[in-house]
Amino acid sequence: MKAIVYWKDDPAGCNIADKIRNNKSEFGEGGVVGGMPTWRNGDGKGENCGDIVIVEVPNEIVRADYLEKFFSPEVFVFASKHRSAAGKPCLTVHHCGNWGEETKVGGNPRELSETAPFFAKKALAHLANNRVDGFEVAMECTHHGPTNYKTPMFFAEVGSSEREWGNEKAGEAVAEAIIASISETKNNENWVSAIGFGGGHYCPSFSKLEIESQLAFGHICPNYTINSLDEKMFEQAKNKSKAKLAVLDWKGLKSEERKKVVDLASSFGVEVKKDKEFRRAD
User: Fold this and answer.
1) 254-263 CB burial, b ≥16 within 10 A, e <16
2) CA distances from 249 to 206, 245, 255 (A)
3) pLDDT in the model for residue 274
4) What pLDDT does 282 receive?
5) Cα-based torsion angle of the residue sequence 224, 6, 74, 99 in order, rounded to the nearest 10 degrees
6) Which of 183, 215, 248 is the last residue of a domain?
7) Based on the domain organization, do 171 and 210 belong to the same domain?
8) What is the pLDDT of residues 113-138, one digit of tens each?
9) Which of 2, 65, 235, 236 is 20 to 30 Å from 108 at the Cα level?
């Protein structure tokens, strides 16, 4: 079973959830679980009536750190709004965690959640291959809560302002990307799980590799949080991403930062690659 989660007061989350409920999967009411309304595909009755459950949470989604008490899915997908000061229309995918002590947007300090690299890769690829006019598609670095999940999870979002959150085409695109991601039962055996280091918040180099290469990224540590990276955080990133490789945004890191990552990777037996090694020739 897979679980799709949204906050009842999030216009983008509601937009995405409505599109999923109205699609061909035929969702029906699944009852109230832990005080939360649910919908299931199938006949809508009982714990095993369908393969997908939609859960409406009562509080801000970045603080919804309690769902594992009530559900045991293969993956959680959090359907959400994305907000940025620039207000640029975009559709984004990312994993959750706090590299440093800051917890203003939920989660625990210096804690990374379990990731879903292959599910997230399929979602981002679907968005990239079915673009909505006027919207950019990007993978973001690891940020905000919830951070405590042991179940693989990721966020799929519509951004970045009220104008976009209710956009019907954007909501439909993210809904279809989520369903495409979690409906497939087998991942491409050639895909390689990786953790990324360097670049900015929207990490364009890693976004491009996520879409075009065999890499499937779990946690991504951007250049502005690299000072928080140490053995504890590297180990979390590696283990919670099931990472086979550490990939460096070579131009997005200073030389001393590259050395820091290389040394940490070596101590954990993780192979390091430069991002340019995976780029297709233009």
Assistant:
1) eeebbebbee
2) 8, 13, 11
3) 97
4) 45
5) 20
6) 183
7) no
8) 999 999 999 999 999 999 999 999 99
9) 2
Does 245 share its domain with 154?
no
Please report the pLDDT score of residue 48 as a whole number. 41
Contact by Cβ (8 Å): 55, 34: no
pLDDT of residue 184 exceeding 90, the answer is no
Q: pTM of the prediction?
A: 0.94
Question: pLDDT tens digits, residue range 199-213?
Answer: 999 999 999 999 999
Per-residue pLDDT reduced to its tens digit, 83-108: 987 789 999 999 999 999 999 999 99
The span from the CA of 249 to the CA of 222, in Å, is 9
Looking at the fold, whether 127 and 207 belong to one and the same domain comes out as: no
Instruction: Check whether residue 175 and residue 260 sit in a common domain.
Output: no
43 shares its domain with 174: yes
Bond from prior residue into 109 cis (ω within 30 degrees of 0): no
For residue 92, give the nearest of 134, 127, 143 by alpha carbon: 127
**Which region, left, alpha or beta, applies to residue 34 given φ > 0 means left and ψ of -120 to 50 means alpha?**
left
